[in-house]
Amino acid sequence: MPRTELNRENLEERVVDIRRVTKVVRGGRHFSFSVVAVVGDHAGHVGAGIGKAAEVADAIRKAVDDAKKHIVTIPLAEHTIPHEVQERFCASTVLLRPASAGTGVIAGAAVRAVVEVAGIQDVLSKTIGSSNKVNSVAATVQALMKLQSPEQVAARRNISIERLIRRSVPA
């Protein structure tokens, strides 16, 4: 699949979580909003960010700006991921498995948001441990960053791509 350049105008923004947080000070309580957002172009580019502000709209804007600063490129194998990957962030562990065409995205809300904006159409996932949305999003992005293309795996093993693919297909 040919790589596409990142087009910053065509990024989809998705808000994963909005929380009201409170800071207790001597004069009372100060309320603000914390937002987790992800951005992606549905072609292998995805980023996640956190924003905090006194107003929801400002917090969303900050989260989206932070996500745009942290965009990473991931390898895709047509409609799914090239291989299984598992990553832990704090108390959340995310397991991603490739799926056959037509399976769809089998994932919880936080993981689903990340893989959909990345352009992955078929994947199986499992969140183990904490289902905290901030940690699940971070674990998912880190897991996607660990993915390697078939070309990279073949080069690392000093074998041809055809031999690698033949080896991975059950007889």
Describe the protein's architecture and organization.
This protein is α+β, with helices and mostly antiparallel strands. Helices cover 32% and strands 35% of the residues. The chain has helices spanning 56-69, 109-118, 133-146, 150-157, 161-168, and strands at residues 12-25, 28-40, 45-53, 72-73, 85-89, 92-98, 105-106, 123-129. α2 packs parallel to α3 (133-146) and α4 packs across α5. The longest helix has 14 residues, at 56-69. It is elongated and about 70 Å long.
Helix content: 25-40%
Q: Summarize the biggest pleated sheet.
A: 4 strands, antiparallel
**Spatial gap, N to C terminus:** 25 Å
Strand content: 25-35%
Task: Annotate the secondary structure layout.
Blueprint: E1 12-25, E2 28-40, E3 45-53, H1 56-69, E4 72-73, E5 85-89, E6 92-98, E7 105-106, H2 109-118, E8 123-129, H3 133-146, H4 150-157, H5 161-168
Parallel strand pairs: 7-8
Antiparallel strand pairs: 1-2, 2-3, 3-4, 5-6, 6-8
Task: Put the structure in a nutshell.
The protein has five helices and eight strands. It has helices spanning 56-69, 109-118, 133-146, 150-157, 161-168, and strands spanning 12-25, 28-40, 45-53, 72-73, 85-89, 92-98, 105-106, 123-129.
